[in-house]
Amino acid sequence: MRVVLVGAGNVGTHLAYHLCSSQVKLVQIWSRTEVSARTLGERVEVPFTTTLDDLSADADLYIVAVPDHALPEIMSLLSLQRDRFIVHTSAGSSMDILRIASDRYGVFYPLQTFSRTHPVRFSNVPLCLEANTAGDLALLKDFARHFSRRIYIMDTEKRKTVHLAAVFANNFPNYLYQVSEDILHGEKLPFDLVKPLIRETAMKVQRQSPRQVQTGPASREDHAIISQHIERLGRDTAYARLYSFLTQCILDSLANKNKPHDHA
């Protein structure tokens, strides 16, 4: 399979690295800026371009790994034959946005957080796939197996739900790590203190439901400690409000869990 990669950001970079170590042939990379295109192209030893009109015309698959807001513009500028198979890597955009550029289109969404400096093991990454024909969906599944065996077929609405859940599972906790780091640094303490705690919590939810492993003063309904913590955060009203809100969410969850259900 011959693949063209449109985009050299975080997602595109990791796709390029993996493709160049697989049996799939990455034939070309496009990026809007020459610095990005050249940097990635030279690293993986693949030809690059900054001009969409110069894209290879005979690839089997075109992967568009650009932000959602850039998709309409990129699609309007593509001038490939209508029988070329194009997919995007976005969670939030419908595959129909690709219809302007081709009669064959779909989605190849890897459910993972990507940064250029941190390697990704694709064998553990869930891949959410969609295509507008059964034949292209089968082709996309075969392609996806070069990355991972964790393959899920889902439509746009389900993919958007997965993305929403991912924000709660990844982006929000990472912000809370920032809050934790700020609190510790305020007393000249290292963030390393809580890293074992973070690892242990992450390991627990691999084996059990998060509801089963919830701990802390809110889960114990220890209002004395809760009040003490809020008072300690008093100088930072934003963090105090955040603590109070999350604590109340946990308390409400406990109340709902313990509420008797009518089975009549």
Structure description:
The structure is a single chain. The chain has 264 residues and is an alpha/beta fold. It folds into two domains: 153 residues, NAD(P)-binding Rossmann-like Domain (Rossmann fold, 3-Layer(aba) Sandwich), CATH 3.40.50.720; 99 residues, ProC-like, C-terminal domain (N-(1-d-carboxylethyl)-l-norvaline Dehydrogenase, domain 2, Orthogonal Bundle), CATH 1.10.1040. The chain has eight helices and eight strands, in the order E-H-E-H-E-E-H-E-E-E-H-E-H-H-H-H. An eight-stranded mixed beta sheet has the order 3-2-1-4-5-6-7-8. The chain is elongated, with a radius of gyration of 23 Å. The termini are far apart. The model has no long low-confidence stretch (mean pLDDT 94).
